[in-house]
Amino acid sequence: AASVSTSVRKSRHPMNHTGVALGIPLLKHALRLGIDGDALMLEAATAPPPRVLDLLGRHKAGVIALLRPANDGWSGEDWLAFFDERAGIAEFDGGLSREQAEVRAFDCCVVEWLNRNPVRSPSGRCVGCGGSEHANDKLLPFGTEPTGHAWLHSRCWPAWHAARQAEAIAALAAMGIDQLRTNQ
After folding, report:
1. Which residues contact 106 (CB under 8 A, 6 or more apart)?
2. Contact at 8 Å (CB) between 30 and 44?
3. Has this prediction a pTM greater than 0.70?
4. Span 19-51, pLDDT tens digits
5. Spatial distance between the Cα atoms of 27 and 23, rounded to a whole number of angstroms
6. DSSP codes joined into one string, 103-143
7. Helical ranges in 4-49 per DSSP H
8. Domain map of the chain by residue range?
9. CA torsion, points 156, 162, 168, 171, in degrees to nearest 10?
């Protein structure tokens, strides 16, 4: 069985999005999760119920993945906060229903993930097909100067773009942000 290190002490931050993603009532039990290397750390004002420890132990790898920053520098918890912030803005400032706001927030997350995880390719090579420039199908740059360009034939862009969006959707789903959540 997976172990979870616990420490009973007062925490200034009793709630985090990780518990929400796993359906664990962290706020109710005044719990805070963190990581130390490969160890899952739990801070609590009082000893947590065995059910909570069991859930955390069974989902330890997933919880650690949510808390550990990815290559883009954001943890799953950061992405959940971004989603919730975007949904709140769309709902309260934009006047959308919560369901519509979450759909909009999901779309914002996809775009943000694509921006934070750019793809580069060598100049003169299409990232879609690997081919070189053709007289009737020039290579076009996609991306921005600071991150570099992905070079693509115009005919390769639709499939490449769809694959990139699917990659973003899969990465977000692994962090608890998915289209099913936004379509409830």
Report:
1. 83, 172, 177, 178, 179, 181, 182
2. yes
3. no
4. 444 445 555 556 677 767 667 777 777 777 787
5. 11
6. HHHHHHHHHHHHHHS-----TTS-TTT----BTTB-EEEEE
7. 17-22
8. 5-67, 76-182
9. -100
